[in-house]
Design goal:
Blueprint: H1 18-27, H2 30-56, E1 63-67, E2 73-78, H3 81-84, H4 86-92, H5 106-117, H6 125-141, H7 144-154, E3 165-168, E4 184-187, E5 193-202, E6 209-216, E7 227-232, E8 234-235, E9 238-239, E10 243-248, E11 260-271, H8 278-314, E12 316-317, E13 320-321, H9 326-357, H10 365-393, H11 407-413, H12 423-433, H13 438-450, H14 456-476, H15 480-485, H16 487-512, H17 517-527, H18 538-545
Parallel strand pairs: 3-6, 4-6
Antiparallel strand pairs: 1-2, 4-5, 5-11, 6-7, 7-11, 8-9, 10-11, 12-13
The structure holds decanoyl-CoA (MFK).
Decanoyl-CoA (MFK) binds at residues 123, 125-126, 129-130, 167, 169-170, 175-179, 203, 223, 277, 279-280, 283, 286-287, 289, 292-293, 296, 419-421, 425, 429, 432.
């Protein structure tokens, strides 16, 4: 028998994740920290079992059957095993309910669960994100009838009463610019609103409810005239006839997720609030799903790095394990430092969300949350693709082979930069968020996080980069085109500054508790540079596009 390579093993995603353990130990009161352990341990176990299943079974995709043998329209979707287990896992471990209790730490505890569950869930987390977002938007609307009707299902701890909600915004006219929405809301003589139109990306089509943007019949064109409606999709165990599934999309990744094109043909609907300003009303949902996007992106990074590190200790090349090869070790350490920065930012957004929602935040922190949410989403989305790609390269040719289970990580990572707003849309949203005193709120936040840090070089770099960002904003304030052209570089820069300050806070805490690794991550992260700003040059751009 010739040589056979040991396959990589997945270390326990909870017990072996020192970054998550240290964050929770630092941020949570001891009793809450201890109570969380059971769920996180179980979700880590599930992730390991799911990885074994991935490696030992043929991958499947959901299948849509539109008609039964007798010509009846059924639109039945057969789901993959992880999706069939989704409701039971979610409710047993209170994934959504955890975030909507009384505690200001609830969102952090929710997203710790999401982080551990995500990869194993095969993107069942996508409709979960939308259900969480719909819950938040319905709460914000203050619509008592809908709160009492939908939320007991969305937040249920019992799989038999649990409902998923979709978010139906994207149409053929636009995913980023929803102002061209063609779906019409028509009010019948019975007073009931009904939706008529076509939604082009529906990733929660197996759900029982959705929030949908539609234009009330007769309303004017544009974004402001859109209204936000709540719909239910099922009646007596069957899909309502007003909802027709046209087809499932054939996507680059997220293959287990049944993303559909649908028709709304008189589906009954209820407005959340006023019959206009639907985008404003759906914004709380967008900000929550963008937080999910960021946490799921770092979950993919964590998985990719964990597999690559494990493999590096098993695989020998040129006479020693890869992990002892200086350049390979350098590559892995660079990945780890970037990951720890992204991890710190994504989880700060999660924690801040809970503190703002529960009224436990400082005055500047609502504005800070508004800014950090798009920054975390856009930066982690891009970084996930980069790190998953780098991790596959750490396996050489094996990283390119389907039944190692590894290529899926890269294919799936590409979605994070697209879902819930592309990098450019989120960069422009961060400009929207920077209006008013938000930059001052960022400075206050950064100062508070890094206040007792020991790494003076890192603190100097953060300060210098913030000053450069201030000068940049001042210099471009009067030229909107120029400000927009440079928005991506500015957003990456602010995301990296915030991450460095958050890493500094964690590094101080961990050093005091005998772990020097976060300080090493901070030093390396800052060494990679914080400033990503570019000077927009409209003439040069025009020449290159000519
Ligand atoms: C596993 C991971 C899970 C992740 C979930 C995956 C789900 C995947 C499914 C999807 O991807 S669904 C598609 C998601 N689509 C988007 O995210 C839309 C992208 N486009 C945008 O984000 C645009 O910026 C947006 C449509 C929100 C607004 O564009 P407009 O038409 O130019 O609107 P405008 O006039 O700027 O904003 C309307 C109002 O909303 C304004 O308030 P006012 O009416 O009071 O002036 C804005 O301030 C407010 N607004 C917009 N974005 C906001 C916001 N408010 C708070 N937070 C925001 N993020």
């Amino acid at each position: 028998m010739g040589f056979l390579q040991d396959p990589p093993q997945l270390p326990h995603p909870y017990r072996s994740d020192r970054t998550l353990l240290a964050l929770l130990d630092r941020a949570l009161p001891a009793a809450r920290r201890a109570a969380l352990d059971v769920d996180l341990d179980a979700l880590g176990d599930y992730a390991q079992t799911a990885w074994q299943r991935t490696c030992s079974s043929v991958r499947r995709k959901p299948v849509l059957t539109q008609w039964d043998a007798w010509g009846q329209r059924v639109d039945r979707i057969e789901l993959t095993p992880a999706w069939q287990e989704g409701a039971a896992m979610t409710t047993r471990h209170a994934v959504l309910a955890a975030g909507h209790g009384d505690s200001a730490h609830g969102r952090l505890e929710e997203f710790a669960r999401v982080y551990l569950y995500h990869v194993a869930s095969e993107f069942y987390t996508c409709p979960l994100a939308m259900t969480d977002g719909a819950t938040t938007a319905i709460k914000a609307s203050g619509n008592r009838e809908l709160i009492e009707r939908a939320l007991p299902h969305f937040l249920s701890r019992d799989a038999s009463t649990f409902w998923l909600s979709g978010q139906w915004m994207t149409e053929n006219t636009g995913g980023s610019d929803v102002g061209g929405t063609e779906t019409i809301a028509r009010r019948g003589a019975d007073g009931q609103w009904r939706l008529h139109g076509r939604k082009w990306f529906s990733s929660a089509v197996v759900g029982e409810a959705a929030l949908a943007l539609a234009r009330p019949e007769g309303a004017e064109a544009g974004t402001a005239a859109l209204a936000l409606f709540y719909v239910e999709t099922m009646e007596g165990g069957r899909r309502k006839p007003g909802l027709v599934i046209d087809r499932l999309k054939d996507k680059l990744g997220t293959h287990e997720l049944p993303t559909a094109e649908i028709h709304l043909d008189g589906l009954p609907a209820w407005p959340l609030g006023e019959l206009a300003h639907g985008v404003r009303q759906v914004a709380p949902m967008l900000n929550v799903t963008r937080t999910w996007n960021a946490i799921c992106a770092i979950a993919s990074m964590a998985r990719a790095i964990s597999m690559a590190r494990d493999y590096a200790s098993r695989r020998q090349a040129f006479g020693r394990p890869l992990i002892e090869q200086p350049l390979h070790a350098q590559t892995l350490a660079d990945m780890q430092a970037e990951f720890e920065g992204a991890f710190a930012l994504a989880f700060e957004v999660a924690h801040l969300l809970g503190r703002v929602e529960r009224g436990a935040a400082a005055p500047h922190e609502a504005a800070l949350l508004r800014l950090l949410t798009p920054l975390a989403k856009l930066w982690t989305g891009k970084l996930a693709v980069k790190l998953c790609s780098e991790a596959l390269e750490c396996f050489g040719g094996a990283g390119y082979i389907e039944d190692t289970g590894l290529p899926q990580l890269l294919r799936d990572a590409q979605v994070y930069a697209i879902w819930e707003g592309t990098t450019n849309v989120l960069s422009l949203d961060s400009l929207r968020a920077l209006a008013g005193d938000t930059f001052a709120a960022l400075r206050t936040g950064i100062h508070a996080w890094s206040g007792d840090a020991d790494d003076s070089a890192a603190l100097g770099a953060i300060q210098a980069t913030l000053d450069a960002a201030t000068a940049y904003l001042d210099g471009h304030a009067s030229n909107r085109e120029s400000l927009e052209a440079g928005a991506r570089g500015l957003a990456f820069t602010l995301a990296r500054c915030a991450s460095a300050a958050l890493l500094a806070r964690q590094a101080s805490w961990s050093s005091r508790h005998g772990d020097p690794r976060p300080a090493a991550a901070l030093q390396r992260f800052v060494g990679h540079g914080l400033n990503r700003m570019v000077a927009p040059d409209a003439r040069n751009t025009a020449l290159l596009l000519g």
